[in-house]
Every structure is written in structure tokens, then in C-alpha cells.
Amino acid sequence: MKWRVGNGSNIKVWLDSWLPGNVIPPHTSSFDPDLRFSDCIDHQCGEWRLDILQTLFSPDWASQEQDASNVVGNEVWRVVWSLDGPPKLSHFVWKACKGSLAVKGELFRRHIAADPICSGCSVTAESISHALFCCAGVQNVWGYFNCDEIISDSPLDAPFHEWLLWMANKVDRVELRRILTIAWAIWFCRNKRVYENVAADLFSCGTGYIKLVQDYRNYAGKVFKAPTCIISAATSRWVKPVAGVTKINVDAHVGLGASGGFGVVARDSQGQILWAATKKIPANWAVEDAEACSSY
Ligand SMILES: [Zn+2]
User: Fold this and answer.
1) How far apart are CA 109 and CA 116, in angstroms?
2) Which of 4, 27, 153, 176 has the most CB atoms around it within 10 Å of its CB?
3) Which residues pair with 248 in a beta bridge?
4) Ligand 1 centroid distance, CA of 37 (Å)
5) CB burial readout 10-45, b (16+ within 10 A) else e
6) Listed residue (93, 39, 42, 96) closest to 68, CA to CA
7) Average pLDDT across the chain, whole number
8) Cα 119 to ligand 1 centre (Å)
9) Is a pLDDT exceeding 60 seen at residue 70?
10) Residue 250: which of 194, 284, 288, 283 has the closest Cα?
């Protein structure tokens, strides 16, 4: 008979022999005999609950999670956080890049699962790439959204962050966001199946997620409109006044949706600053009014 971790809700972390070799890891002071394996995973996101791992296991074991992030460079960071979708989408992609999604292959590598086999197809080890792109039921979804060709061309054997950089160089940002949104929907459905034993419809879920991201963008476009700053820049070089004369320069800027301000500086014939001042003003002032006011 083979031991299966399943969704982990029946496995007691400290009392059951769930690790290969019947090893029970040493517990810390936060010993809870009723703690279940499933408590170590965030079922909504399918990710490790690092807060729990770090209190339960040795620092070496828990820090593997941190080590994984070191291989993910700035370029990946830039791609992930410039998707212009909801933060949860970027969070999901970032977790995938760090290898933090709790797929069976990873559970097995960490000696948590007795085997790495995907519970969806029962054929292959479940890597992140397998769960999102290759598992039997998932391939049809990519075909449905007309992405099957680009997905099959992509480096599916590479770590996810390398796959992401490849894809970011192949498609524009709109298409990249759409592809990652579909992957996010697939991951959501996979978690529903694994942790809740619910067979979610991948096609309608993918369509729903694409709409959700679009709705977010429409909403964010209205609410988080970037302030357009109009800056009246000096175009000529500053010239010293003649001896005995104090020169006063003023400048103002006005932003839409943000406060503006003006500044005044007085200098003598040597260019030395005699005094200077700044003041905030309401954002709805015209530039000309703001500059005129700063002269007083
Ligand atoms: Zn599979």
C-alpha cells in the first residue's frame, strides 16, 4: 500500500509518519499535536504558509524558500511588476518565478510527499510548468484561447522565471498579461480540485479571469489616474544681477489630482542666495495664476 498525502487534511504533522523513512521532524515550542499538513499551505493561493513553516521547521528547511528567490533577477522583477494587472496577478506570477507554488514535485523534493505524481493526470511529476501548461486537461484550455502554438514553442522545461523572460520577449505586454491571466485561472482551478475536490470549469474560469483583469484595469484607470504635472521650466541660463541689485526668481508647478507649489529665491550680484521660500498651493490653480502669485 502506498501512502498518499492528498490535500493533507487527514495528516497530523507531528503524529503521522508522512515523511519518507517514517521520519518525524523535531518540533519547536509551538507544538500542536493536532496540526494538519494542510494547515501549512494557503489553499486559496496554493502556496506555502511561510509564517507557519518558519515556526515549525529548522531554519535550513524553511530558508530554502528564501534561497529560491535569489536566482530571480531584476529583469524578472521588472516584468512581473509592470504587468499593469491586479496586484494579485503579479503576486501569483512572482510566486511561480520563485518556485513557491506548492506543486507535488516540489512537495516531493522537500520530502513532504511520497511521490511527485500529478493528481490531475496521474501520469507525470507535477512541476509548475506541468500544472500550468502541460497537464492533459490544461492543454485544451490554451487551444481554446488560441495560445497553444506559442505555449508549445516556449521553453517548458526551463524554470518558470526563464520561461517568463522568453515569453516577455515574444509577445507584447497585453498578450503577456492575457497569457499569465489564463495561467492564473488554471492555477485557481487546480487548487479547487486538489484542496476542495471541486471540478471547476477551466474555460469559463479563464474567460472570467480575463474579464476580471480588464475590469480591474478599467477601474484602476479611473481611480489611480497618474497626475499630469505641468512644469514651467526656465529655458534661459540664469544671469547675475548688476552690483547692488537683488534678483528674485520664482517658479511654480501645478498637478492634476495632486497639490502644486511654488518657490522663490533671492540672490545677489555674486550669485549668493540671500533667502528662499516654498509654499504648497491648491492643485486646481492655473499655471499662470500660480506663477503670478509666487511673485507676491
Ligand atoms: Zn498532470
Assistant:
1) 8
2) 176
3) 266
4) 22
5) ebebeeeebbeeeeeeeeeeeeeeebbbbbbbbbeb
6) 96
7) 76
8) 6
9) no
10) 288
Alpha carbon distance 173, 237 (integer Å): 42
Q: How far does residue 152's CA lie from ligand 1's centre (Å)?
A: 16
Ordered DSSP codes for 266-290: EE-TT--EEEEEEEEE-TTS-HHHH
In the predicted model, is pLDDT for residue 276 greater than 50?
yes
Cα-to-centroid distance, 262 and ligand 1 (Å): 62
Ligand 1 centre distance from Cα of residue 49 (Å):
24
Tell me how far apart the alpha carbons of residues 152 and 178 are, in angstroms, rounded to a whole number. 16
Give the pLDDT confidence score for residue 245 in this predicted structure: 79
Cα 52 to Cα 3, 38, 45, 65, 157: the distances in Å are: 24, 11, 15, 13, 31
Contact between residue 131 and residue 118 where contact means Cβ atoms under 8 Å apart: yes
Give the Cα separation of 186 and 202 in Å (integer). Answer: 6
Q: Looking at 96-105, 127-136, 221-230, which range is the least confident one?
A: 221-230
Ligand 1 ion: residues within 5 Å (CB): 118, 120-121, 135
Q: 3-state class of 38 per DSSP?
A: helix
What is the Å distance from ligand 1's center to 186 Cα?
12
Q: What is the pLDDT of residue 99?
A: 87
